[in-house]
Amino acid sequence: MTTSGKKIRIPQPVLQVSVDAALLPKSPVKPAGASAAPGSDGKARINIVAPIAPKAVALRQNLRQQSVKAAVARVDAAIEANTVSPTEAKALVLALAEKIVGPGAAAEKWYRSHHLAAFGGRTPAQMVRAGELPALVAHMKGDAAKPKG
Predict the structure, then answer these.
(1) Domain containing residue 25
(2) pLDDT confidence bin for 113, thresholds 50/70/90
(3) CA gap 51, 65 in Å, rounded
(4) N or C: which end of the chain has fewer CB within 10 A?
(5) For residue 129, pLDDT beyond 50
């Protein structure tokens, strides 16, 4: 019997059983889930973890997707209502910019110095300060959808 050494995830059913200590591997590393020392009766306690059913995996993935869609809908609603703070607006624009120009410093440089012809040569930073986030985000999402190259 071998163990993977992984931590037990909470949602998985666990059964703790006693087995003959002589059946456990003879290694200096203690198997995960086994008690520190076999009892006087030569028994050791082992955790048996049930695998996650494919239906449960699919359900979890579906719930995560629904959660992401709900979060995106909340952000879109806040943008449309113009209730996004300047700090959040900058973070949003930088996240979108990373999809267009690349991560980190490139996105920050683009945010501060790239002049957008569609908006009279203003930079994204100027547009965020002017409260024109909905138009900027719509423009950026259109640019992100275009194939690069």
Answers:
(1) 14-49
(2) very high
(3) 22
(4) C
(5) yes
Question: SS3 string of 64-126?
Answer: HHHHHHHHHHHHHHHHHCCCCCHHHHHHHHHHHHHHHHCCCHHHHHHHHHCCEHHHCCECHHH
Confidence (pLDDT) at 149 = 47
137 shares its domain with 92: yes
Structure tokens at 42: 């030569």
Pairing mode, strands 43-49 and 14-20: antiparallel
**pLDDT value at position 44?**
82
Whether residues 106 and 145 fall in one domain = yes
Tokens of 91: 């973070």
- Give the end-to-end CA distance of the chain in Å, rounded to a whole number: 54
Strand pairing partners for 19? 44
